[in-house]
Amino acid sequence: MSKKEIVNDVGMMLLGNILLAIGVAFFIVPNDILSGGVAGIAVAVAPIVPINVNDIITILTISLFLIGGAFLGRNFMIKSALSSILYPVLVHVFGLIAAKYTITTDPILASIYAGVFVGGGLGFVFRTGASTGGMDIPPLIIHKYTNIPVSRLVLITDALTVLLGMSIHGIEPALIGLISVYVSSLMVEKTMLLGMAEAQNVMIISDHTDTIIEQIYEQLDRGATIVNAKGAYTREDRYMIMVVILKKQLPLLTRIIEHVDPSAFMIVNNVNEVHGEGFTYNG
Fold this sequence. Notes:
The chain is of the alpha+beta class. The chain has two domains: 190 residues, no CATH class; 73 residues, Alpha-Beta Plaits, CATH 3.30.70. 63% of the residues lie in helices and 11% in strands. It is built from ten helices and four strands, in the order ααααααααβαββαβ. The protein has a four-stranded antiparallel beta sheet with strand order 2-3-1-4, with helices on one face. The two termini are 20 Å apart. It is a multi-pass membrane protein. It holds the Pfam family DUF2179.
């Protein structure tokens, strides 16, 4: 790993932990929001455990960090060590500030902003391949063995955390907490894809392949790939064009195809991530 990559990872981990700690200290803990993560568990079990909420967060964070090291390896443990130490410290520091300055007492508003800060923070940390040492570790472990998207696993884990809170606090606080869980899940996904162009993969079957490709080059400035295909019914050999375009370019591509060959067959798929010239910020 180059020096630039190390600096970039450390910067993203620092930013991620700051955002996460702000969400916990200013919104979750003061308003008893039953969100996901260790903060949600801490708030949920606080009434039945004679320990301060911030101390519960510290204990859970360190414990889960050690579990993550056992399943995800030495490299993960090294990367996550900074977050596992920094996160509890930042929660305590921001907690002292939050005790003096209240941002909101509206539980719904607090739940929304908690999801924004927590999800954004987790997303930045996940981008480095590390963890905060909290409840994001179980999703990362499951993802390693199943390849289920991390954002989806975080949503499931957080939902189970809210159910735990519901069994102690009741239904209404849990319903408010689900708002935070949903917003957090969206923010994790959006943050992890930050910097990636929104793209679509288009498959085109036409009798005017050459003309369509020429128009794609001239009007869209995109490359294309010709794929050999065969009709299942006719058994005729055909050419299929595959092209990846920016989402905003789809209307123009549609007009091109309608003009060149109105009877062309077109399939459009959303693309979650694209690497390469013309799409990523390194292109």
